[in-house]
Amino acid sequence: MDGESLRSDKVAYTRVPIRLGEDVFEFGCIRSEKQQALTHAIQAFGLLMQSMGVVDFRACATSAMREAENGKEVVAHIEDTTGVAIEIIGGREEADLIFSNFSMATLEQNQDYLYVDVGGGSTELTLIRRGDRVEAKSFRIGSVRLLKNKVSPQVREDMRQWCTGLQEKHAVSSPVFIGSGGNINRLYKLAGGVGKAPILKEDLKAVCAKLKAATYQEKLDRFGLKPDRADVIVPACQIYLEAMDLFDARSIVVPKVGLGDGMILQLHNRQRQG
Residue 266: inside a domain, yes or no? Predict the structure, then answer.
């Protein structure tokens, strides 16, 4: 197959919710139980790749592994055990990979966008103008971290100041918000979103209020959430709404692409060039 005939399609998505952040944000390190669970998961992915004939892959660790005191030791142990090398990437590279999906989102490129990706441990904000990344910043505020009350007031103030400075420096006015991450994908569906049409902030607020008022079991039964999503979806929604408030945004677009898609796109481009 030559480079011109290569194409990229998402054929499967497998998620194993281990939540390293529960350890890291509480104890500063990844404890043995989480390390063992992660090792087993990576081993399973390795076997899946072998069975499917995968010829190229990339494994990345983000916020929780970056902050874990024993992060490097954990990835070294996993590589020794499974043969899979995990890269601990910085917030800048994480934001770059997320931004690389912009062209995939088939959105108008002649206006300003604020790309917001909320993970378990961090939130990446990226200003996009005419299809180019202008500035990006990673903040230590994420759904799991917020759930565990591990977000410092200073982080919120830093995010507020960065957003204010961004608007002043680049004359940003009412950018279109793009939401990325598993939680916003689910929130989009619950808010009645269709295709790539934006949803109003008021509709997002209404969904958030209903979820906040629901019990854990109601989130599972009434809203059809999975157990690993039910407890973090409200904190995640609050972060999206907080970011939207900082820019007085009235709606948000959810193209359903994120970090994983950026990693695949990067590998795809390497194949085309090589």
Answer: no
Buried b (16+ CB within 10 A) or exposed e, 117-139: bbbbbbbbbbbbbeeebebbbbb
Residue 41 falls within a domain, yes or no? yes
Three-state DSSP class for residue 40 = helix
- From 33, 64, 88, the end of a domain falls on 88
Q: Tens digits of per-residue pLDDT, 70-129? A: 999 999 999 999 999 999 998 778 878 877 766 655 567 678 889 899 999 999 998 988
Which amino acid is located at 150 in the chain? Answer: K
271 lies in a domain? no
Name the pTM for this structure.
0.81
Can you give the residue range of the structural domain that contains 59? 3-88
**What does the alpha-carbon distance between residue 204 and residue 208 come to, in Å, rounded to a whole number?**
6
Q: Give me the CATH number covering residue 63.
A: 3.30.420.40
Q: Are residues 104 and 172 both part of a single domain? A: yes
Q: For residue 156, give Cα distances in angstroms to 24, 151, 242, 244, 267.
A: 20, 8, 9, 13, 34
3-state DSSP assignment of residue 124: strand
Q: Tokens 């970090």 appear where?
A: 259
> Which residues does residue 61 pair with via DSSP β-bridges, in sequence order?
88
CB atoms within 10 A of CB 78: 22
Same structural domain, 33 and 144: no
What is the per-residue pLDDT across 122-179, written as a single tens digit (0 to 9) for each? 999 989 888 788 898 989 999 999 999 999 999 999 999 999 999 999 998 888 899 9
Helix (H, G, I), strand (E, B) or coil at 99: helix
268 in any annotated domain: no
